[in-house]
Amino acid sequence: MLTNESRRADFPPLREMTYFNTAAENIPPVAVHEALETYWEHKTMGMRGRDFHFPEFERCRVVAAELLKKEPDEVSFCSCSSEAYNLLASALNLQHGDEVVVTDLDFPSGATPWLRWPTLPTTRLWQNREGVLELDDLEKLLNEKTRLVQVSFVSFLTGYRIPWAPFRDLVRRLAPNAVLSVDVTQAFGRVVLDCLDADCIISSTYKWQLGVHGGGIVAIAKASANRLTTHAGGWYNLSNAFDADRFSSAVPFPGARSFTVGMPPFPAIYALRAGLEYLRGVGIAAIADHADPFVARVHDGLKALGIKTMSPAQPGCSSGIVSFQHERDAEIQAALLAENVHVMHQAGRIRISIHGYNQAEDVEMLMRALREAVK
Questions:
Q1: Which of 43, 129, 161, 300 gives 20 to 30 Å between its CA and that of 136?
Q2: Can you name the CATH fold of 32-281?
Q3: Domain residues of the chain, as ranges?
């Protein structure tokens, strides 16, 4: 992944294009393709295939738990991060008068379930200033009524990465009753995570994780399991799903296991296991060491072009994403595509995302195309 040779072998589509859009859709490695073919072989066995599906689920839990520094029974899977957040809302059972803090850099899946909860808890918005979430602004929003503080470790919108320790300490001090939940979708697999002491960690299974659609990762520490057990019905999440008392009571497994309410999303799990094992083999710290200088190069190159990024470069707190706005964004996108350089273009915003499979020559091609486009 980190060299031209490994990239050509493991990511054949990248031989033909320069790709900077992993924050939207990743390019999966060959190992994920092979895992999906294995799923297909097992699926065509009919009922006997389940003898392979459920052990694969456990294998995926083990590798995810290892990378998230959890025990396997502190990790489980659902269909997507949006489902995970709605199940978290069920677990919290927020009441009128309870307060939730979200940020204006969050993805909608983490920011909106609290707006739909029928008892209408108060949602307070932590707004960024010049692309930065300032702790002074958060301090005014926290109190003993705060039941949840929800953040994205890395913002999908701008690439801003929260400096975790001072943020965590402030929440723990001023909102002692709050659950601290973090979405690591735009970080897991790309950034060394220092947010693993959160009460609840949620992620997608594709993007930087190198898997495919159809899955969500949930990690809940044992210490938080009882208060973060969803109230949802189902069967795979219940300890008594087929017992004699199943029509008079439903007893969920605690914590993360309660979030897998039905048949696990096996295709996504096969793919995720392969993607995470690939990342583990390369080393997430090695990926960060390889790709962070490229991110710095993009920040510097945009500054030289007079373009201000939507979040500033943060020494020691890099993410894989650089976003900017430009009045000629559509022309810039067209010029990049003409050079077969792929970035995200949406609502006036250009987002560049850099993973371990990007190389120095990719970044130089990107910068050359940008310089031509903004002339």
A1: 300
A2: Aspartate Aminotransferase; domain 2 (3.40.640)
A3: 4-23+283-373, 32-281
Q: Which two tokens stand for residue 152?
A: 């994205």
The 10 Å Cβ neighbour count of residue 174 is 17
Distance CA 19, CA 343 (A): 7
* Closest residue by Cα to residue 185 from 160, 155, 229, 164: 155
Fold of the 4-23+283-373 domain: Aspartate Aminotransferase, domain 1 (3.90.1150)
User: 4-23+283-373 and 32-281: same fold?
Assistant: no
Rounded to 5 degrees, what are φ and ψ at 200?
-140, 130
Interatomic CA distance for residues 73 and 78, integer angstroms: 14
Parallel/antiparallel/unpaired status of strands 349-353 and 321-325? antiparallel
pLDDT tens, 307-340?
999 999 887 788 999 999 999 899 999 999 999 9
**Residue 374: what pLDDT?**
86
For the chain, what is the radius of gyration of the CA atoms? 21
d(CA 283, CA 300): 26
Instruction: Return the pLDDT at 317.
Output: 81
b/e map of 90-107 (b: 16 or more CB within 10 Å)?
bbbebeeebbbbbbebbb
Q: Quote the CA–CA distance of 281 and 226 in Å, as a whole number.
A: 34
The model carries a pTM of 0.96
How high is the pLDDT of residue 259?
Answer: 98
Helix (H) or strand (E) run with residue 151 in it: strand 146-152
Question: What are phi and psi for residue 103, nearest 5 degrees?
Answer: -115, 160
Under-70 pLDDT residues of the chain? none
- Tell me the C-alpha distance between 147 and 121, whole Å: 9
Q: Which of 202, 204, 262, 205 is nearest to 232 (CA)?
A: 262
Angle at 13 between CA 364 and CA 217, to 5 degrees: 95
Pairing assessment for the beta strands 99-103 and 146-152 based on DSSP bridges: parallel
Instruction: Find tokens 């709050």 and name the residue.
Output: 178
327 vs 174: CA distance, rounded Å:
42
Tokens, residue 324: 């900017």
Residue 339: what residue type?
Answer: E
Q: How far apart are CA 222 and CA 77, in angstroms?
A: 16
